Amino acid sequence: MTANYPHGRHRNILRIRFSKTGKVRFVSHRDVARLFERALRKLRLPVAYSEGFSPRPKLSFGLALSVAHESDAEYLDVELNELPGLEGLPKALTAALPDGIDVVGVVTLDQGMASLQQAITSCMWRIEVLGAPVVEVTAAVAETLAAPELPLERVRKGKTAVADVRPAIIDLEVEGPTENGVQLVAHLATESVSLRPSELVKVLGIDGLEEGRVRRTCQWMIIDGVRREPVSRPDPSSGHELRRAS
Questions:
Q1: How would you class 216 by CB atoms within 10 Å of its CB: exposed for 0-12, middle for 13-18, buried for 19 or more?
Q2: Rounded to 5, what percent of the chain is helix, strand, coil?
Q3: In angstroms, what CA-CA distances link 155 with 74, 163, 204?
Q4: Which one, of 211, 207, 209, 203, lies nearest residue 144 by Cα?
Q5: Total domains in the fold of the chain
Q6: Cα(54)–Cα(121) distance, rounded to whole angstroms?
Q7: Residue numbers of the domain that contains 207
Q8: What is the CATH number of the domain that holds 18?
Q9: Are 62 and 122 within 8 A, CB to CB?
Q10: Exposed, middle or buried by CB within 10 Å (0-12, 13-18, 19+), for 94?
Q11: Is 72 helix (H, G, I), strand (E, B) or coil?
Q12: Do residues 77 and 132 lie in contact, with contact meaning Cβ atoms separated by under 8 Å?
């Protein structure tokens, strides 16, 4: 795996794990970045800035989350001029952010660790679909998983192309009915062949099927052949972050 944070000049990088739920799900990815910039300034953390005529704080997010989607596992890397104490930092950052954005873990990165954009290989999703009963959705999921290929028409940079997205569906199952529709649990790739939740709903092939509530539950990296999260979940018994994926 190619690293984006190379050896050489020492770089102080924090990796932040946060959730995005409730009404704040309608805030765009770009606006979330601005909210974190403001929170970091409010806490007077020594954030490193780029050089040039318009210096920008050195922040690097993971995979963008679509507007209206919720998440239990969002990530942000922040380069600092010096490292602060981590004790109490998740709580302080959460207090400086809007309701619905909760920082649940902060770790330091070792030199040579891969950037989030390079490291993430797949995501887990809970996807509610609307407009069809459980029986019909279950049959469509079975047909989708059995299909040797799944051609999907996409428009990229003004050009239409057809891609086989079957390799992007690592796993897919019907969890059961919800109050308004049917709950799916999907494991979707993000690398050479990727698939968005909205595209998954489309390839199921049910007329009138729509996307309901969507929640990203995990983002996965592969390190030494082992699937891990960029920052592990907090220990439910203590509320403390367990470890980084390294």
A1: buried
A2: 20, 40, 40
A3: 27, 11, 19
A4: 203
A5: 2
A6: 33
A7: 119-223
A8: 3.30.70.580
A9: no
A10: middle
A11: strand
A12: no
Reported as a single tens digit per residue, the pLDDT across 207-237 is: 999 999 999 999 999 888 889 999 987 654 4
Q: Is-contact 70 214, C-beta < 8 A?
A: yes
Question: Collapsing DSSP states into helix, strand and coil, what is residue 78?
Answer: strand
140 and 219 both lie in a single domain: yes
Q: Is residue 234 part of a domain?
A: no
Q: Which of 22, 42, 24, 120 is nearest to 76 (CA)?
A: 120
Pairing status of strand 120-130 against strand 101-108: unpaired
How confident is the model over 75-133, as pLDDT tens digits? 999 999 998 888 999 999 999 999 999 999 999 987 777 788 888 999 999 999 999 99
Contact in structure between 51 and 117 (CB atoms under 8 Å): no
pTM: 0.87
215 with 139, same domain: the answer is yes
CA distance 85 to 92: 12
Residue at which a domain ends, from 118, 148, 171: 118
Give residue 19's Cα distance to chain centre. 10
